[in-house]
Every structure is written in structure tokens, then in C-alpha cells.
Amino acid sequence: MSNLVKKILALFALIGAELIMLGGIAFVCIFLFLLMAKLVFLDQNQTFDMAAFAFAKKQTSPAVTAFMQFVTFFASKDFLIYGSLTLAFIFFFIKKHRWYAVKIPVIAAGSSLLNQVLKFWFDRPRPETAFYEQSGFSFPSGHAMIGGAFYGLFIYLVWTNVKSVLWRWVFTLLLCFWIILIGYSRVYLNVHYASDVLAGWSAGLIFLIIALLVLRKFEPAYARKATEVMQEDTTEENNSRKDV
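Above: the chain's sequence. Below: its structure in C-alpha cell form.
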């Protein structure tokens, strides 16, 4: 019985802290998504959205507009297709990280597909003041959702592969800034409401967390690591018995 308890504790040490952190993030994201949905569809309150548009309007200039159009491209469908396939191709030839060749396109395609489902479900028209014509519905923002899932995956990769704590935080802050900038570009260009963006980030992170947990079940490296922990625990117990 004690052996079983030790094995369970060993596995918890391996995945417990990470699961608690991911669970906490998922809880916050679910709450935020539901809050935005309530604000938009039940309360029909546009105060937050109009305030965000007013703020963005004060920053408007030809140079800023050109920059925002450049930023927004990096969460577009065209970039998502070619970018994810290129990264998958690169990771395929790195034996240690070959499994990422599966994770990246699956998460990129999955987040895009889920976004389309959610848009048709909520059926919110886009703002009439858009800088350029954009097809499809508005809630949640596809760019923000892809930003949360696709670039959120890179934050996960940083924390699971970069040993230096300093560089972990540097890369994480840069990626977070990039995700926020992509979301803001959608509001600046008036192709999405701010509530669309917040809902998109939330949905993207929720999808990312679920996808990572599901894909992990099929990940050979993770399975080996869990097995090694179990074997080490058993070996230590056998050695202690021999000493006695």
C-alpha cells in the first residue's frame, strides 16, 4: 500500500504543479469568456467596446495603421497555414523535439476550426467602422484566438525547454506582448470589438490547454518520463529493503 502511495506522489510531483497552473489559467479564461458573452449578448452593454475604440482612435495615423496591418498578418489564416507547416517541417528533423511537428499544426488548425464554430454560434456582426472589409462574424476574434493558442504554445515550449529562468521570462514577456499587440491591432483596425478580442484570447488559451493535455497522452517522451519516475521509485524501495 505504501508503495502505491509513493508512486502516486511521484507522479503528482511530475505533473501536479503544472496541472494546477494550467487549471488555474483555464478557470480564469472560462470566467472571462462567459463574462464577455454575458456583457455582449445578455446585457447588450457596449460601454467597454466603445471606450476601446475611442482609445484606439486617438492613436490613429498612417504610420500606425501600416504597422497594425503588418502585425495583424501574423495571426492571419495565410500566415497560420504556411507558418505552422514550416515550423512542423523544421521540428520534424530535430529528433528531440519531433513531437512538436504534430503539436504545432494540430493546435493551429484546431483553434482556427473551433473559432469558426464559435463565430457561427454567436453570430455577432462586425463593426461597421472597419478600416477594410472583412468577411465572417465578429465574436470571438479569430486573430486573438489564434494568437492565444498558437503563440501561447510557444510560451509553453519556452517553459518546458529553456533552462535559464531569466530567458524563460524574457521570451514569455515578449510573446505575451506580441499576443496583446495582435489583439489590439484588431481593435485599432475596427474589424473587431474589444470584447471579441478578450473572448478570443480566452477561448484560444482554453483550447491550447485542452489540446496539450490530450496530445500528451500520445506523446512518447512524456510516457517514458512518467515510466522512469515509477521505475526509480520502485528501485529505491527495493534497495532500501535490501539494506534492511
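The two ends are 19 Å apart (CA to CA).
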